[in-house]
Design a protein that fits this description.
The protein is an alpha/beta fold. It is built from seven helices and ten strands.
Length: 244
């Protein structure tokens, strides 16, 4: 069995090193398409309140706020939060340092988004059930959740020589070379928890959510395709019951 993350905030040194060069990654280039899709799928309206869990440098938060949606972004990386705040100007977006494992919000949000391993998926295979329950609790009655998670099917089918997939925990370990804005390179270990659609459905239902759909998606190409062995991510759309 592969060794797990060294500590619970193992992603922070990577975020501190990469800074805004994070936004050069190809997987961040489709933010507008992703937000277009989510606004429609979550039926978001101006002035709705959205929690962006694991917001990173705030690319979805800022794009939602540009549409008049009131966003709170939470993340554990001080550097990413600073980048998010620097984009916010007069937009209705606020950002705070918060571990999703300790999120304790009660029924204040019309929607919660947790995208691109926004904390969930970086927990080293632990706390998944508790974290989904916390995200669910943050929703108003009938509030909606959009969560993406890496696909076990995809990872195993397309396993790279630099990756080790731990079949017991579903955690994929890889060593990735990360480049900062000055072109400096450093190797980082990444531990990404991967899921099947069925696991995600069961987790969401255990958290009291009603699962509307699980789609197979890729960054920048969110859509309503069925999950497949070749879609890298699953997108869960779920909602809180009307009577909480
Ligand atoms: C790959 S980035 C995704 C960021 C953003 N959602 C996006 O789509 O660009 C993963 C983010 O999760 C954050 N993160 C990791 N563990 C977390 C935790 N326990 N609580 C909150 N955020 C966490 C990291 O700091 C990082 O910003």
């Amino acid at each position: 069995m592969s060794t797990g993350p060294p500590d619970e905030h193992w992603f922070n040194p990577l975020a501190a090193f990469v800074g805004d060069a994070y936004l050069r990654n190809a997987f961040t280039k489709g933010t507008v398409q992703e937000v277009d899709f989510l606004v429609d799928a979550l039926a978001l309206q101006p002035h709705d309140r959205v929690l962006d869990a694991g917001c990173g440098p705030g690319r979805h938060s800022i794009e939602l706020a540009r549409r008049g949606i009131e966003v709170t972004g939470i993340d554990v990386s001080p550097e990413f939060l600073e980048l998010a705040r620097a984009q916010a100007d007069d937009l209705p977006a606020t950002f705070r340092q918060q571990d999703i494992r300790a999120l304790d919000e009660h029924h204040g949000y019309d929607a919660v988004i947790c995208l691109c391993q926004g904390g969930f998926g970086l927990l080293g295979g632990a706390d998944d059930e508790d974290v989904i329950a916390r995200l669910a609790r943050a929703l108003k009655p009938s509030g909606r959740l959009a969560l993406t998670a890496f696909s076990s099917y995809f990872v195993v089918r397309h396993l790279e020589p630099t990756e080790t997939f731990d079949a017991a925990s579903g955690v994929n370990h890889e060593t990735a070379t990360v480049r900062d804005n000055a072109g400096n390179e450093r190797d980082f270990d990444l531990w990404t928890t991967c899921f099947t659609p069925r696991e995600l459905r069961l987790l969401a239902e255990r958290a009291g959510l009603v699962v509307d759909a699980i789609y197979g998606v890729r960054p920048g190409a969110y859509g309503r395709a069925q999950p497949s062995l070749d879609a890298p991510e699953h997108l869960v759309l779920a909602r809180a019951p009307q009577d909480l």
